[in-house]
Amino acid sequence: MTAATPRREVLREGNEQAAAGLGERLRQVRMDRRLSQEDLAARAGLGPGTVARIEGGHQSPRVSTVVRLANVLEIPVRQLIDPRECGCALLTGPRQPVGTERAQSG
């Protein structure tokens, strides 16, 4: 984070990346299970467009929604939330505690 980048903007970008990653993992598992977005939504008790928005990274689901999706897909919640649990190569760098900044060289 630079002095010119407001903290709120950095957090928003991080949330968008997390939503996109979760959506990609959801899509992968759903397709592995040969379910349509509509079938998954109906089984989880969600609206028909909700799964599409989550998979597209346009909606950050509530924890309760992630739990319902994981239950329908018969997977642990952490498989949707944590990229290291799904076998995906979606991590972009080392994990850091929230609120810390990477040291800049130079």
Structure commentary:
This protein is an all-alpha fold and 106 residues long. It has one domain (7-85): lambda repressor-like DNA-binding domains (434 Repressor (Amino-terminal Domain), Orthogonal Bundle). The chain is built from 5 helices and no strands. The protein has helices at 7-32, 37-44, 50-55, 63-73, 77-81. Helix 2 (37-44) packs across helix 4 (63-73). The longest helix has 26 residues, at 7-32.
Concise summary:
The chain is mostly helical and 106 residues long. It has 5 helices and no strands.
In the CATH hierarchy, the architecture is: Orthogonal Bundle
Tell me the CATH superfamily. lambda repressor-like DNA-binding domains
Radius of gyration: 16 Å
**Poorly predicted spans:** 87-98, 100-106
Helix content: 40-55%
Mean pLDDT: 76
Strand content: under 5%
Task: Break the fold down into its secondary structure elements and pairings.
Layout: H1 7-32, H2 37-44, H3 50-55, H4 63-73, H5 77-81
Helix pairs in contact: 2-4
Keyphrases for this structure?
about 110 residues, 434 Repressor (Amino-terminal Domain), single chain, 5 helices, mainly alpha
